[in-house]
Design brief:
alpha+beta, Cyclophilin, 4 helices, 10 strands, disordered C terminus
């Protein structure tokens, strides 16, 4: 599932695990922090942090479970199942990386092992979330707006022209340099939720007729990468 505008076929680790997670959760872009200040939610239920270890380093992803609940629930379930472990980044552009395809070519989707059915999720657009900086995490999809399944992309720079077209559900709060180092064929070694338990077990995969992807090209309103996360 590589995504294109009209086509979609979706500090060291020791520091993170040593108590820095709380600090990471408090870092947000202006629009996101405004939303969070107005919708703080239960004090005991912060946004989950997913630690993703890759062949080029580790990144921590804050998952917006309240701002994009359906999309977040899908991603966290797949992480809990171990679905992403071993998956490659099959697409690398100057402005994004994309991974999570079970086939490694952008045409795979997640198939629920209990039902044998491919799981797609409806597009979920939160207008308080924007493709405004490096580190934005969103779902790849096909031409059908509701065809996102398991593939995701991470921006390497702002892409405001994608707003309203793809479901943003998270932001990289640590490890932006890892994103910049990833090349086609690099793998996700292991992904895990480090500050919140989520249900789910098992893994499945299937082939989709269309290719999941983010828009092709990087023209129109893009800004350079500042090298710092806005989340």
């Amino acid at each position: 599932m590589n995504f294109k505008a009209k086509k979609f076929s979706g500090a060291p680790v020791s520091a993170l695990l040593g108590g820095a997670i709380i600090g990471l959760v408090g870092i947000c872009a202006p629009a996101h922090s405004q939303y969070l200040s107005q919708n703080p939610g239960p004090r005991h239920s912060p946004d989950p942090i997913v630690l993703m270890r890759t062949t080029k380093g580790t990144m921590a992803i804050r998952v917006y479970s309240r701002m994009a609940p359906t999309t977040s629930r899908n991603f966290l379930d797949l992480v809990r199942r171990g679905f992403y472990d071993g998956k490659t980044f099959h697409r690398v552009e100057s402005w994004c990386i994309q991974g999570g395809c079970p086939l490694g070519n952008g045409r795979g989707s997640f198939s629920d092992p209990e039902t044998g059915q491919v799981r797609y999720i409806p597009i979920e657009i939160n207008h308080d979330l924007h493709h405004s900086s490096a580190g934005v995490v969103a779902m790849a999809r096909g031409d059908n707006l509701n065809s996102a399944s398991c593939q995701f992309y991470i921006l390497k720079r702002a892409m405001p022209q994608l707003d309203g077209q793809y479901a943003i559900f998270g932001g990289v709060v640590d490890g932006l340099s890892t994103i910049q180092r990833i090349e086609i064929g690099d793998r996700i070694i292991h992904a895990e939720i480090v500050n919140r338990d989520q249900g789910g077990a098992g893994e499945g995969e299937s082939t989709s007729a269309s290719t999941s992807s983010v828009p092709q090209g990087s023209s129109g309103g893009s800004s350079g990468n500042s090298g710092q996360s806005g989340f």
